[in-house]
């Protein structure tokens, strides 16, 4: 097994063990696409871990950024992700700027997080999630640049869903992603989020944020018709999993404090079956409230 194959195998193991939602959609792709998705995921997983580990420092992120720039030019440090990462980026023509944005977003999480406006939140979501969508549609394949803003919106929808699911864990780390303007509008304080106060005001806030997320899901759906047909089941499954997760958050009446909302392996496997059987690209399982 050569260096690149060893690197892809390392990335596959990382994706299989850590990509709780993404990995299911990988299974519907060709072998080369699946390897590429694992390589991108392993890179981005390490980026995210850099800001979440205790004692994370800007110096560590800067070292990773420097190693990435070298890897993009074909110069590898000792980390096993780089050969597969470089091979994937070159093979699928992925713009380098996406990865720089990702690292910038991760670096911003080193400081206590507080956002004033939705524009600020959108920028953060773009850096840590939209660039993921923009990256993977290069692996999926597309023929028109109109796919790019749709992939950006898809990433926003996914990240807003993650933020709603992870409010408790993020608040414990000193990260409040919901904009201060929204907290003020619904009379919810940052202390309410840290204390897990699921008041009527909090439920109204969450309902507002969930509707905002769903708008981005709705606006991104035409992307399914723009990626190459062989990749549509994978994208279909990915959107369905995250859309269903948003529905699950709503069905608990936004009880994100007492437990982490998630889909079971059986539910995600059933979505894969639906993705394979579906023949119409817009047949995305939708939250009950919008059917």
Low-confidence regions:
284-291
Strands, count:
2
Percent of residues in beta strands? under 5%
Residues in helix, %: 55-70%
Taken from the alpha-carbon principal axes, the silhouette is globular
Rg, please? 19 Å
Task: List key phrases describing it.
291 residues; mainly alpha; two-stranded parallel sheet; 2 strands; 67% helix
Structure explained in plain terms:
- It contains 14 helices and two strands, in the order ααααααβαααβααααα.
- It is an all-alpha fold and 291 residues long.
- The protein is globular.
- It starts with a helix and ends in a 14-residue tail after the last helix.
- 43% of the residues are buried.
Kindly summarize this structure in a few lines:
The chain has 291 residues and is mostly helical. It contains 14 helices and two strands, in the order ααααααβαααβααααα.
Write the layout of secondary structure elements.
Elements: H1 3-18, H2 22-26, H3 31-52, H4 58-72, H5 82-92, H6 97-108, E1 113-114, H7 118-140, H8 147-165, H9 167-172, E2 175-176, H10 180-185, H11 190-195, H12 200-220, H13 232-251, H14 265-277
